[in-house]
Design goal:
With about 290 residues, this protein is mainly beta. It is built from two helices and 15 strands. The longest helix has 22 residues.
């Protein structure tokens, strides 16, 4: 793999680690000003980093990175697949770089390649994943609800073991509703024109509708816990549907730094295989 791709994959994560101490040292106690009781118009729910970070769920957050800010989300995932041809796959740094624009409701993003190491089928494979670029827009919000959309294109730049083999296109409709002072419900309707290698080793296109819903509980810290269900109408070329259930915990360390941990699994086998994963992440806002 070319050195330039390795640099691109690790640059955002390395920058986060270098700057994390300085950011975390900022004042964590200054609250976001609350709207006055007499304000007629609802306030924008996209203020704190915990409302803006979109990892590690399948569901995409409604909120965008605000004008003059850059958010770098990073993570590590270890996936275990059991059954015929199973193995363990590690992926990192899973960076997502999100950039605010002059319109506070619009952002652009780029996902650099992540490094992967897999032992699937008893053979060790290493390499980088594909790159994608995208945009997100917060369409509107009310007193408890907000809604938006995002889209991205995946460019097939990765190693054969970790690439889709052709360009992929995704469009999402995102929503969220605060059900009270503690709980909120959010979700995404995902429309995906995907590609993958079939059993003959050739690239085959397929479509997947991926709806998801996540229940979150806001906790002191500020922090949150969540439980999510996602459905994939097609798991791959010539494969059936699958479901994913995942749980996680996120905690803000100051205004601009967030940590997360998560666990997820697919309850039903696909081609005789079942999978589960554990992960952790660090997100940093500049």
């Amino acid at each position: 793999m070319k050195p330039a791709i390795r640099v691109l994959a690790l640059l955002s994560f390395a920058g986060s680690l270098v700057a994390a101490t300085a950011v975390a040292a900022g004042d964590p106690t200054s609250p976001t000003p609350a709207p006055s009781a007499g304000t007629a118009a609802p306030s924008d729910p996209c203020g704190s980093i915990i409302s803006i970070v979109t990892r590690p769920t399948v569901t995409t957050s409604v909120c965008t990175v605000r004008t003059g800010h850059v958010l770098i989300e990073n993570g590590y995932t270890n996936t275990t697949t059991t059954g015929p041809g199973g193995g363990v796959t590690a992926a990192y740094p899973q960076s997502l770089i999100r950039v605010g624009t002059s319109d506070p409701h619009l952002e652009f993003s780029v996902t650099p390649p992540s490094f992967n190491r897999s032992s699937a089928g008893g053979a060790i494979a290493t390499g980088y994943s594909d790159i994608n670029v995208g945009a997100k827009y917060e369409i509107g919000y009310g007193r408890t609800a907000s809604w938006g959309a995002n889209a991205y294109v995946t460019i097939p730049t990765g190693a054969r073991a970790f690439t889709a083999g052709a360009a992929q296109y995704t469009g999402n409709l995102n929503w969220s509703d605060a059900m009270g002072p503690v709980f909120s419900l959010s979700g995404t309707f995902g429309f995906n024109a995907l590609n993958g290698f079939n059993s003959a080793g050739t690239v085959q296109p397929y479509f997947a509708f991926i709806p998801s819903v996540v229940l979150s509980a806001g906790l002191p810290g500020p922090s949150s816990m969540y439980a999510e269900y996602a459905y994939f109408s097609q798991a791959g070329p010539n494969l059936g549907s699958k479901s994913l259930i995942d749980f996680g915990y996120s905690r803000d360390l100051g205004r601009n730094l967030q940590l997360d941990i998560e666990y997820g699994f697919s309850p039903a086998p696909i081609n005789g295989q079942k999978s589960s994963y554990t992960g952790a992440g660090l997100s940093l806002m500049f």
